[in-house]
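Recall from the previous chapter that SMILES is a line notation for molecules. Here it describes pyridoxal-5'-phosphate.
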Amino acid sequence: MTNEKPRFETLVVHSGVQPENWFGSTLPPIFQTASHRAATAEQLSDLFAGKEKGFIYQRLRNPTNEALENRIAQLEGGLGAIVTSSGMAAIHNSLTAIAQSGDEVISGNSLFMSTYLLLANVFKRFGIKVNFVESTAIDEFENSVTSRTKAIFVESVGNPKMDVPDIEKLAVIAHGSDIPLIVDNTMPTPYLLNPFNLGADIVVHSTTKYLSGHGDALGGAIVDSGSFTWPNEKYPDFEMFKERAGKKAYLDKAWREIHINVGATQSPFHSYLTMIGIDTLAVRMQRHIENTKKIVEFMANHKKVKWVNHPSLESSPSYETAKKQFPRGCCALFTFGLANQKECFDFIRNLKLAYHLANLGDCKTLVIHPYSSQYVSFDPATRAKLSITPDMVRVSVGIEAAEDIIADFDQALDQV
Ligand SMILES: *Cc1c(COP(=O)(O)O)cnc(C)c1O
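With both inputs in hand, we obtain:
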C-alpha cells in the first residue's frame, strides 16, 4: 500500500481486516464463543479493570464484532463504533447514553416506523421527552431547544417521506446550543454521505439494510466522530468518561453504561455476514443508484402513475438540499402514487420479479404498501403527518437489470 489514504472503494474491501491475527484468513473468523479464557486471575482482574485490552464475554466485546466496528468506523470517518443486534438497538443506545429522565430530545418527524414509536412511546415511559418537528424546517429545531435538550436526531433521508434535512445547517444549530447532532445514515450509507463531514457528531445505522446488503443479517451500529466536547455544565455525567477515554468519551459511556448492560449484542455470525456484505457496498450502491434513476424516470412518465417522490426529481421539496448534500445520488428508495389503495394492491399482486416484503436495501427489488402494512395500526392523524397515504407504494430498487425491473413494473401497471 502507498502512503496515500485509500479511497472508499478500497476501504470497503480492506478496512477492519487483520490477517496477521487471523492465521492468514482475510475473512474475519467467527468467534462463536460466549466467553474467553483468561490465563491467570491477575489477567482477568486487569481485563475487568480495563488495564489490559482483551476479550472477556461476548456481551462486552467480541473479535468478529470488533472487525466490523473498525470497518464501519473507517467508512464513516469516525473514531470508533459499537455494533448492536439491530438498528433499533443502536438508536436506543445512542440516545439513552446521552438523555435521561427529565431530559429532552428534538427529532425530525420523518422517521422509520419503529424509530418513531421508540421515541414517541418507549422514551416517554422513561421520562425522556421527544419534541418532533418538521425534518426539513431548520427554524423549528432552533425554536424547540430548551435548557433540557440533550440531542438532535434526524434521518439523513426520511423513510418513506423521502425528505432531506440540511445536515450542515442542523449541525450549526445544534452546536450553537452545545448539543450533539445524531444522524441515522442507513439510507444513503457512507458511500453516498458521510454526515461527519457536514458537522454531525454521532451516526447510527441499521446494518440490516445496504451495509449487509442481502437481507440476511439484522444489525446496527453507533459511530462516534469524537469531535463533540460534552461541556461539563450541560453533560456533567460525561466528566468521568472524558477522564477515562478522552475523545472517545461518548463511545466509552455508551458502551459501559448502556450497551453491555442492555445486552442488545450483535451475533458474531451477523458481523461476519455484514463484513462480507460491505465488501461489495460501493459497487452495489453505484448500481442501486443507476437503476433508481432509470426506474424513477420510467415511473414519472407512466400514464397510470399519479406522482413519484424521490429527492432527485425537481418536483421534490428536497431537490435542492439533496443535490447539494448527495453529489453521487441520494438513495435507492422512492415512493409513487396510483389512483387508490385498490390499484396499489393490484399492482403488487401482478408483480412477477419484484418481491413484496417489509425490508429495504436488499439486492432484490422490494415493494410494499406502507399504509396497510407497517402503519396499519397508526391513527389517521399520525399517518397523515408522516405522509403515509393509501395511494402510495414504496419501492426499494435492487441491483437486477434495470430493464427487467421496468418490464415487471410495466406489465403490473398494465393490469391495474
Ligand atoms: C430499518 C431501519 C431502522 C431499524 O433497523 P433494524 O435493523 O430493523 O432494527 C432504523 N432506521 C432506518 C432508517 C431503517 O431503515
